[in-house]
Write a structure and sequence with these properties.
168 residues, alpha+beta, Thiol Ester Dehydrase, Chain A, two-stranded parallel ribbon, 4 helices, 33% helix, globular, fatty acyl-CoA hydrolase activity, Cytosol_ACT, Acyl-CoA thioesterase, HotDog_dom_sf
Length: 168
């Protein structure tokens, strides 16, 4: 392990330091023939949000390693704003787990509704493109602990539902 990796491994980052919020107005290029968000566009936004949260946390380039199951539970209509939020809730030696939530917002009324949630795993890279150590995760406030615990439990529940649904 080089000196940079040793320093990074000794550091600690917080849930709050990784928090990322993005917004996208749903325009025709990202809609299907019903005027609703294309699933691929939403997944793209989620991946970007998760990557930014990861990079903010570890101060390194990251790559997507995996994305858990996704259910689109409510559409995003053309003209609505997609609000994408993500934060790191767990780390390994070189990996970061990120919860990403998406909700639709009507910009005229302020009405919001949840559209999807998924959990991503990213891997931090060093300057040579090899996996690199990430800081330890801390949740120093009650709010950060609640976010971390919510993500851990939510991922556990989502995976259990997938196993049950597909009789795995």
């Amino acid at each position: 392990m080089d000196e940079t990796e040793t320093e990074s491994a000794a550091e600690t980052g917080t849930v709050a330091e990784s928090y990322t919020e993005m917004t996208e107005m749903l325009l025709p290029n990202d809609t299907n023939n019903l005027g609703r968000a294309l699933g691929g566009a939403v997944l793209h936004w989620m991946d970007i949000c998760g990557a930014i949260a990861s990079m903010r946390f570890c101060n390194r380039q990251v790559v997507t390693a995996s994305m858990d199951h996704v259910d689109f539970i409510s559409p995003i209509e053309m003209g609505e704003v997609a609000v994408i939020e993500g934060y790191v809730f767990n780390v390994g030696h070189t990996s970061l787990d990120v919860k990403v939530d998406v909700r639709a917002e009507n910009p005229r009324t302020g009405e919001e509704r949840r559209t999807t949630t998924s959990y991503f795993t990213f891997v931090a890279l060093d300057d040579d493109g090899r996996p690199a150590s990430v800081p330890e995760l801390a949740a120093p406030t009650a709010e950060e602990k609640a976010l971390r615990d919510d993500a851990i439990e939510g991922r556990r529940e989502q995976l259990a539902e997938v196993v049950d649904r597909y009789d795995l």
